[in-house]
């Protein structure tokens, strides 16, 4: 399945439903990066000029008519809400979104500085750390949480690489060229979980220790109170790389 064509078709259907109220449609995640499996989610971004419960219901009705609708997920909201979103989350959102309809940079401030990336890395790492500790003590199956946490580590590593160099590695393959040691291992486990799936309790403990050690280190090295904090590159605000202009086949509306 061509996810970009799917997203373009969805944008057309949404434009028929909402007209000029539709401000932006984009594609995110592994489908946008060209790293998807056949069963990967289709991460769609839909932004309207405002959101009500009725709007959400209408949007759902459009998506439910799409092929492979069971794979669809993503972000639906208003332009005002996304423009007010926390910067550390917008950092990932802006870099990870491929436009299909509209221009995201006309809605949000896409100029990011290394501190935005460090904040994203710190909060991402803290989420991984908490999930590991909570599941180990209170959960039923530690192994089920490891795969998504290793995949989540990819986004933390992307943010760290941006903070260090001012360059955002868009794909896992691109990021792998710049990593070494435990960072490279963590990315590799997330890229090919089946090859690294732990065979038993000891294997799961080894991977848990790896993520615990790394996530704690990331939190410490990116904390503003740490005098040995990672030194972000001295760059001016860095805009998300330009993406291809969104091309959507515009339907004819009845006069």
Question: Can you offer a commentary on this structure?
Answer:
There is one protein chain. The protein has 255 residues and is of the alpha+beta class. It folds into two domains: 3-86 and 97-105, 2-Layer Sandwich (Beta Polymerase, domain 2); 114-222. The protein is built from eleven helices and six strands. It has helices spanning 3-18, 29-33, 53-64, 79-83, 87-95, 114-138, 142-165, 172-176, 181-191, 193-196, 201-222, and strands at residues 22-28, 42-48, 72-78, 98-101, 111-112, 238-239. The strands form two sheets. It has a four-stranded mixed sheet. Strands 5-6 form a two-stranded antiparallel ribbon. The chain is globular and about 55 Å long. Residues 233-245 and 247-255 have low confidence and may be disordered.
Question: Notable features of this structure?
Answer:
single chain, 255 residues, alpha+beta, Beta Polymerase, domain 2, 2 domains, 4-stranded mixed beta sheet, two-stranded antiparallel sheet, 6 strands, globular, disordered C terminus
Give me the secondary-structure topology:
Layout (H helix, E strand, L loop, with lengths): L2 H16 L3 E7 H5 L8 E7 L4 H12 L7 E7 H5 L3 H9 L2 E4 L9 E2 L1 H25 L3 H24 L6 H5 L4 H11 L1 H4 L4 H22 L15 E2 L16
Parallel strand pairs: 2-3
Antiparallel strand pairs: 1-2, 1-4, 5-6
Helix pairs in contact: 1-3, 5-6, 6-7, 6-11, 7-9, 7-11
Give the gist of this structure.
With 255 residues, the protein is α+β, with helices and mostly antiparallel strands. Helices cover 54% and strands 11% of the residues.
């Amino acid at each position: 399945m061509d996810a970009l064509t799917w997203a373009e078709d969805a944008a057309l259907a949404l434009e028929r439903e909402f007209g000029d109220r539709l401000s932006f449609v984009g594609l995110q995640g592994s489908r946008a990066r060209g790293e998807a499996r056949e069963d990967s989610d289709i991460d769609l971004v839909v932004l309207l000029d405002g959101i009500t419960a009725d709007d959400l219901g209408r949007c759902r009705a459009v998506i439910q008519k799409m092929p492979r609708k069971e794979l669809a997920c993503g972000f639906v909201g208003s332009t005002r809400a996304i423009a007010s979103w926390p910067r550390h989350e917008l950092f990932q959102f802006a870099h990870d979104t491929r436009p299909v309809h509209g221009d995201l940079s006309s809605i949000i401030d896409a100029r990011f500085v290394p501190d935005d990336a460090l904040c994203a890395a710190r909060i991402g790492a803290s989420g991984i750390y908490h999930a590991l500790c909570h599941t180990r003590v209170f959960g039923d199956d530690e192994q089920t949480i490891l795969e998504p946490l290793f995949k989540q580590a990819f986004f933390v590593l992307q943010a760290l690489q941006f903070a260090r160099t001012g360059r955002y590695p868009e794909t896992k393959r691109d990021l792998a060229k710049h990593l070494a040691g435990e960072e490279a291992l963590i990315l590799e486990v997330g890229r090919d979980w089946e090859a690294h799936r732990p065979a038993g309790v000891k294997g799961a403990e080894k991977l848990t220790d790896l993520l615990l050690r790394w996530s704690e280190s990331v939190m410490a090295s990116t904390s503003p109170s740490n005098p040995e904090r990672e030194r972000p590159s001295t760059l001016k605000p860095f805009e998300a790389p330009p993406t291809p202009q969104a091309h959507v086949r515009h339907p004819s509306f009845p006069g």
